[in-house]
Design a protein that fits this description.
This protein has helices at 2-10, 53-63, 77-80, 83-90, 101-104, 130-138, 183-194, 212-218, 220-223; strands spanning 16-17, 22-28, 33-39, 44-47, 69-71, 94-96, 126-127, 141-145, 154-158, 161-165, 168-169, 172-173, 201-204, 210-211. With 228 residues, the protein is of the alpha/beta class. It has a seven-stranded mixed β-sheet, with no helix packed on it. It has a five-stranded mixed β-sheet with strand order 8-9-10-13-14. The protein has a two-stranded antiparallel ribbon with strand order 11-12. The structure holds zinc ion.
């Protein structure tokens, strides 16, 4: 962990930068979860602080403005493990879809007691409601409900960027055999994303970034009739 944070601090500049926003990515934990830091005009958003809080806090120590809020794409243990430490250190709200409550509050359902190293359950959280969605939207953050990998999986849309969690990866899609997963739901959710116009960058919960156009062309699950 020590080596990783030193390596990270040697890195300067942003992972992706435009005039509208700056995006950084930290890769954390045993399942190499992508934790994204998005700097907007009015706030710093943290997505999926999945593990290794020391790496995440050293990022903010070295790079400036502290996070204002956390929004998670879903509640599996490899996406939530750093949340208690981050919420406590920065005293910021953590938001997740209401259908993930059962998962974040149960170590069997979030997988931490099966695949992880401890029994993890969250006691401090905010379930996203209509008012939050309006407030997010004012800050250019939109929430798209995309159940399937888990019941309350969401895609976070900011400008022409989609943070897809474990719904859609470069060349692949998320599994549906975990608690609350549904093949029918993930098909509907993928179709929602497939029907969006080209021009979106895609930042998945694991692996490399991609874009909607190349996934429509190259991702088996989007190119074939498996969605119908
Ligand atoms: Zn997951």
């Amino acid at each position: 962990m020590q080596n990783k944070s030193i390596l990270f601090m040697m890195f300067s500049g942003y992972y992706l930068e435009s005039d509208k926003m700056k995006i950084d990515r930290l890769i954390v934990g045993p399942l190499a979860t992508n934790c994204y830091i998005i700097r907007l005009d009015s706030m710093v958003l943290l997505i999926d602080p999945g593990a290794e809080p020391a790496i995440i806090t050293s990022y903010f120590d070295s790079k400036g403005p502290e996070p204002d809020l956390i929004i998670n794409t879903h509640g599996h243990f490899d996406h939530i493990s750093a949340i208690p430490a981050i919420v406590e250190k920065y005293n910021i709200p953590f938001y997740i879809d209401p259908d993930e409550r059962e998962i974040i509050t149960d170590s069997l359902k979030n997988g931490s007691s099966i695949f992880g190293e401890n029994n993890l359950l969250l006691t401090t959280y905010n379930l996203i409601d209509g008012a939050d969605i309006k407030r997010f939207k004012k800050n250019k953050i939109e929430i798209i409900k995309t159940s399937g990998h888990s019941p309350g999986s969401i895609v976070i849309k900011i400008e022409k960027n989609l943070f897809t969690g474990d719904l859609l990866f470069k060349g692949s899609i998320g599994r549906t055999d975990l608690f609350g997963g549904s093949v029918q739901d993930i098909k509907r959710s993928l179709l929602k994303i497939k029907n969006m116009e080209n021009g979106y960058k895609i930042f998945p919960g694991h692996g490399l970034e991609t874009d909607l156009e190349s996934e429509k062309k190259n991702n088996y699950y989007l190119t074939n009739n498996v969605l119908f």
